[in-house]
Amino acid sequence: MVDLGNKKVIHSLAGPAIFGLMILLPVDSMTYEVRCSIGLLLWMAWWWITRPVHLAVTGFLPLATAALFDFVPLSRILPAYASELVILLLSANVLTTCWSLWGLDRRIALASLIGVGTNTTHQILAWFAIGMILSAFLPNTIVAATMIPIVVAMLKFIGIEDLWESNLGTALVIAVAWGTSAGGATTPLGGAPNLLTVEFIQEMVTQEEFLFTTWVTRFLPLSLCLMVATFLYVRFAFKPEIAQIEGTREFFTNELKSLGPMNIHEKWGFWLFLIPALLAFTRPLYANLLPAFSPAYAFLTFALLCFLIRARGENLMTWEYAQKKMMWGLFYLFAGGTALGRILSETGTAAYIADMLLPYASNGGFVAVLVFAALTLLMTQITSNTAAIAITVPITISTFDSLGLNPLPFVYIVAAIGNCGFMLPTSAGGPAVAAGYGINLKTMAVKGFWACLIALVVVVSIGYLLARFWPAFSTA
User: Fold this and answer.
1) d(CA 276, CA 302)
2) Are 192 and 380 in contact (CB under 8 A)?
3) Is a pLDDT exceeding 80 seen at residue 192?
4) pTM for this one?
5) How many CA within 13 A on the CB side of residue 39?
6) Residue 426: phi, psi to the nearest 5?
């Protein structure tokens, strides 16, 4: 019988061993850079799932391996560790830390339990639906960064601190993350992958403006079927350790009443989070006036105010308190996943994998739909949904143009499946934020695999039928 200590040693050594084997792999078609990149991907995935070290430690591997083995310029991946999304997550964490200082997190948790109910299955489905609906109109990372802290606050209130060891904690946070992925393709506003797809269609296919209304009408059947399928999967995929949160709606209502009215510190904490969240959601209204004031810097501005505002003779928050409560690992994990995605793109690894599959789609038809959808889904899991779209949509357009086939239906299908990041922290903003809060990554990877398979079957089947029997699906 192998004890826990030995298991950790084995998993610690297995990661770098896989990396070393990939470097030495005698495959002429794979460049040194590609072998290193695939090795790093496997190493990080292994450590994220088996967790021989903290998740944040794994997040620094791209820097160390790139410096030692020189397979990608460090200047290309260093920005990932200070990206706007890292700033956004850090700032949102400061603001929610202020909640815990003054008890606002407890009030929000009670309101969530009263509003959604105490049945854990209903909780999972409700949070999934909220993430799904909001992500149809807002970038998935923004939705995840604003909704997951509320879920975590509720979990802490009912006594769940370690999300990795809790099926319910992991399920609730994953529900929000997956919801942001499942609903992302509904409108172009769902995130960068959609806007990038619009740009490719305008530049490479139509040479004219691609209307948002056109996107909605073409994607709505795909999105609705995908959302229904993933909703049903989430309903049965997770088995929380408790079926009912202890306490009745009346109990939580009384608990909320016992807190009394919000004090001045709670009100400041509430508004300092709500205002940047609203600014993030209404970004198009003021983007021309303040082009650099993106959601990340809106949250940062109000996070800084936490340390400046004094109410009734007390600072709203001090750095001494914040640094003890901040989830520092969240930022490094997210940055590491972003850096890995950049490495796979910069070294040509993602394109190499794509080129391997292209011959299987040369005759068009259902096989071509399946191959390009599967390729995009694979790219989404190991890089990011934005990187996947940046790689596969131009390949899709050029390939079917060269075959004399209309590329638009293939592009629609690829764009829809490109939003389905479920398995790894590298998949999309939602899973990355969820991973940073310490959920069980083994659970996300295993159940995410089946979610990906269901998404692939649904999108390919419905997309193929739409292309065959709905003429508008082949137009812009």
Assistant:
1) 7
2) no
3) no
4) 0.69
5) 22
6) -80, -10
